[in-house]
Amino acid sequence: MRGTIGAYIALTKPRIIELLLVTTLPTMILAQGGFPDFWLVVKTLVGGTLAAASANVFNCYIDRDIDELMNRTKRRPLVTGEISPRAALVFATALGVVALLWFALLVNAPSAWLTFAAIAIYVVGYTMILKRRTPQNIVWGGIAGCMPVFIGWSAVTGSLSWSAVALFLVIFFWTPPHYWPLSIKFKKDYAAAGVPMLPVVADDRKVAREMIGYTVAMIASSLALWWLAPMTWVYGVVAIGLGAWFLALCVLMLRRANDPTQGKLGAMKVFHASITYLTLLFVAVAVDVFLPF
Fold first, then answer.
1. Up-side HSE of residue 236: CA atoms within 13 Å toward CB?
2. pLDDT per residue over 150-162, tens digit each?
3. Which of 72, 94, 103, 119 is the most buried (most CB within 10 A)?
4. Share of the chain above pLDDT 70, in %
5. Its biological function (predicted)?
């Protein structure tokens, strides 16, 4: 029984859900201008967890044929047979229905519609349409990962604002330089499965150059929030410092791609740094609201 429960939990990809929730709470704090109603926060985070879990299980169900071809994913429950495809499909559908009803009945209608859009973009837009067809799959499919800030903002205010758009764009431009380093590490897996991730179809130099471009846009979006919200100088210093640090890592990666004698590419270092960047930036968003100046 414990093994079966663990298998179902594994299908939901808990680590991805954790990262999504990291962006939701600070967004809600900024939207409120302080800490929102405690139970609203709980309801939003629970609903977001259910929605993300649904999307991830649908992803595992649809991708089960290629997951068995990749070393990174061949131990997923649908590949090993711990969970049947039918059971996974029922589980994903149930999670999605509960998530939508949860938001509609306990939070508000705008957040419910945005949740529906997030699930649809990830399942249909990314997994079913883009992932196996274009190297830009993670760019546009990554919109789903940006939706928690819209959901969190609308849960508090019932609407959206330009500040929410700035946060959305931070995550949108952050996604490629976050995911492509991981794709570099597992490019053989993706190639074997026929998934045209950019690192599979382009050399490391092109990937690094594009990462730098997206990183610059990400930094610009984070600074736009400084003006739009507006935030204090503390947030501005943190945003500039974090952005410069992450950009430097991407530039170093490009230099090493151009000249391998300078050392290993360091793709996974950039991957882990991207998580640190996003986490600390959103912590700064939350903390800045409570500063007395």
1. 9
2. 999 999 999 999 9
3. 103
4. 99
5. Converts heme B (protoheme IX) to heme O by substitution of the vinyl group on carbon 2 of heme B porphyrin ring with a hydroxyethyl farnesyl side group.
125-131's contacts with Cβ under 8 Å and 24+ in sequence apart are 127/58, 127/59, 127/62, 127/63, 128/62, 131/63, 131/195
pLDDT score of 199? 95
Average pLDDT for 180-205: 94
Q: Which two tokens stand for residue 226?
A: 């400084």
Structure tokens at 50: 């259910």
Q: Count how many Cα atoms sit within 13 Å of the Cα of residue 125 in the half-sphere of its side chain.
A: 17
Q: Which of 17-21, 209-213, 218-222 has the lowest mean pLDDT?
A: 17-21
The CA radius of gyration of the chain, in Å to the nearest whole number, is 19
Q: What is the 3-state secondary structure (H, E, C) of the chain?
A: CHHHHHHHHHHCCHHHHHHHHHHHHHHHHHHHCCCCCHHHHHHHHHHHHHHHHHHHHHHHHHCHHHHCCCCCCCCCHHHHCCCCHHHHHHHHHHHHHHHHHHHHHHHCHHHHHHHHHHHHHHHHHHHHHHCCCCCCHHHHHCHHHHHHHHHHHHHHHCCCCHHHHHHHHHHHHHHHHHHHHHHHHCHHHHHHHCCCCHHHHCCHHHHHHHHHHHHHHHHHHHHHHHHHCCCCHHHHHHHHHHHHHHHHHHHHHHHHHHCHHHCCCCHHHHHHHHHHHHHHHHHHHHHHHCCCC
Model pLDDT, residue 293: 81
Encoding tokens for residue 125? 């837009």
The number of beta carbons lying within 10 Å of the beta carbon of residue 88 is 22
Tokens describing residue 40: 């609203």
Amino acid at 232: T
CB atoms within 10 A of CB 21: 17
| Amino acid type, 106 | L
